[in-house]
Amino acid sequence: MALPPDACSLIVQYVSDSNSTLVSLCTVSKQFKAAAERSLYHTLQLKGHALTVRVCELLARTPRLSVLVVALSIYAQEDDSDDTSSEDSSDASEAYWNALAGALRRTIRLRFLSFYFGGGGQMEKASILDDCTFQLRAFHCDLAWDEHLQSFLATQSRLSDLYLADFQSL
């Protein structure tokens, strides 16, 4: 006998402060899996390159999960390893930006997007927003102001909260 969807949602809401419990609920039944995945993927805060790449690659190849993402915050932190060559670093950077762009193209229900790259310099990577179809309500970023960012913002008819760090016109 199946539980009503509202009951599953209430149970998931009760344990939503524990991601490990939500992951466990995904294995209980299809009903719990759907409710737990909605809770797990609704708001994502990704910190560091390795985690961001793994999650973004998952979202890019799994539309069932990417449509659940409503809020996404990316906190870029350089990896602690100093023993990587500049070529490896360049490849890792390329993989990072490609994974992020792929995930953004799939998160069609995204409403809140924040990038916190830090490091003092502006990031000239707004091309990751090309071909995105979501309509944001809030957008915070420290991407460099360029044609890609201008084109993206021109498509955002529902945007009511915009923060551009260190805005500089061309």
In short:
With 170 residues, the chain is an alpha/beta fold. It has helices spanning 5-14, 19-25, 30-42, 49-61, 63-66, 86-106, 147-154, and strands at 43-47, 71-75, 112-116, 138-141, 161-164.
Protein topology:
Blueprint: H1 5-14, H2 19-25, H3 30-42, E1 43-47, H4 49-61, H5 63-66, E2 71-75, H6 86-106, E3 112-116, E4 138-141, H7 147-154, E5 161-164
Parallel strand pairs: 1-2, 2-3, 3-4, 4-5
Question: Would you kindly provide a written description of the structure presented here, covering whatever features stand out?
Answer:
This protein has 170 residues and is of the alpha/beta class. The protein is 45% helix and 14% strand. β2 (71-75), α6 (86-106) and β3 form a beta-alpha-beta unit. α1 crosses α3. It starts with a helix and ends in a 6-residue tail after the last strand.
Annotation field: number of helices: 7
The main sheet orders its strands as 1-2-3-4-5
Q: Helix/strand/pairing class, anyone?
A: alpha/beta
Order of helices and strands: HHHEHHEHEEHE
